[in-house]
Each structure stands twice: as structure tokens, then as C-alpha cells.
Design brief:
The structure is a single chain. By secondary structure, the protein is α+β, with helices and mostly antiparallel strands. It contains 8 helices and 6 strands, in the order βαααβααββββααα. The chain has a 4-stranded mixed sheet. Strand 4 and strand 5 form a beta hairpin. Helix 6 packs across helix 8. The longest helix has 16 residues.
Length: 191
């Protein structure tokens, strides 16, 4: 699920890579209570691997603006020039540092009209590395707790959500210092 509100040719998945966007998504999902099937589809689009989540001050729009400006200045915004730029060093990506010091990876986008696919670089400034299942679990559980006006998030709720919304197996324990427990605390502190 990429952000269609961003200017072309940017392809960016903020639900996967942008904490500010995720926070807004959670608040909207709690207040508007969309169908579980919609939430499930959105969250399953996060995939199954590890990812880098940007937690810095730049909005998705500002990130896109800075990337476009850089590519324009280097005359690399057009598809052909951008493709040549990516392949020139024998790699299929390039890195760009934005104004807040965060490194971003530029790859070839596979969506029509959006050939500049970007995501935070691994272990970049203002990012945290998280497993997709952990991110999905935390986001879905916070939404469910908010929709049900629950005073706390507990293991039974997490497991119900993992099974019903995410097609994930239940977890045996939830430790606040590691994995889903640690990320859940991280997320709750930033909402």
C-alpha cells in the first residue's frame, strides 16, 4: 500500500516506513472504525521481513519533496536517467542523505508512473529496525484496544488480534524488554 498522495514519481509505503504516518493511521482507525477486512489488508501489505521505520521529524511529503529536488538538480528525475543512475555503479540502488541526516535508499519503482521507490536505509539516523510481524501486531493491537476502549493491552487481546486480524500464531509471553512487547511500548509512548 503506497501513498498515492505523494507526488509522482515517488513510490513510498509510509505504513511500513514512517512512524508519524502510522500514528495518524492508528488515530483514524480508532475514531472511524473501518471494517476489519480493510485493516487486515492494510496490515498484511507490510510483508513478512524486517524493515526500517523512520521516526524523524520529516513528513512523507517533505521526504518526497527533498528527493524530487535532489533528482531534479542532478537531472535524474526522468525514468531513463533515473534507471541509468541506479545501474551506473553496478548496484540496483543509491543512497541519499536528507536534511535531517537520515539516509534513504532509492530503488526502481514497479508502479506505473512511480519509478522512484524509496525507504529508509538500514540502521539510518532516526530509524528503528523492526520485524514486520512485530509492527503489525503492535499497530493492530493498539487499534483494537482503542476501538474497544480497553484500559490496557494484555496477552489475550494480542493473541486474539494476531490470529483474527493478522493470520499469525499466538505468542506464549509478552516481555516488555524484547520483541513485540518492547515495540508496543515504543509505539504507545509516541502516540
Amino acid at each position: 500500500m503506497f501513498c498515492q498522495d505523494l507526488p509522482k514519481p515517488i513510490l513510498f509505503h509510509p505504513l511500513k516506513h514512517h512512524l508519524g504516518y502510522i500514528s495518524a493511521y492508528i488515530h483514524k482507525s480508532v475514531s472511524q472504525a473501518p471494517e476489519v477486512s480493510k485493516l487486515k489488508a492494510d496490515l498484511l501489505s507490510l510483508g513478512t521481513s524486517q524493515l526500517d521505520l523512520y521516526c524523524g521529524p520529516l513528513s512523507p511529503q517533505e521526504i518526497a519533496r527533498q528527493v524530487i529536488l535532489h533528482l531534479q538538480e542532478q537531472e535524474l528525475l526522468q525514468q531513463e536517467a533515473f534507471g541509468f543512475y541506479l545501474r551506473a555503479e553496478g548496484k540496483d540502488y543509491r543512497c541519499l542523505t536528507l536534511s535531517d541526516g537520515t539516509d534513504w535508499v532509492l530503488r526502481w519503482g514497479v508502479v506505473e508512473g512511480r519509478h522512484v521507490h524509496l525507504h529508509p536505509a538500514r540502521y539510518a539516523a532516526h530509524t528503528v529496525r523492526v520485524k514486520a510481524a512485530t509492527l503489525k501486531t503492535a499497530v493492530a493491537t493498539v487499534i483494537a484496544a482503542g476501538q474497544q476502549d480497553l484500559p490496557e493491552i494484555d496477552l489475550p487481546l494480542i493473541n486474539r488480534i494476531r490470529v483474527a486480524w493478522l493470520d499469525l500464531p499466538p505468542v506464549k509471553a509478552l516481555a516488555p524488554q524484547e520483541g513485540a512487547g518492547k515495540f508496543l511500548q515504543f509505539l504507545l509512548q509516541r502516540l
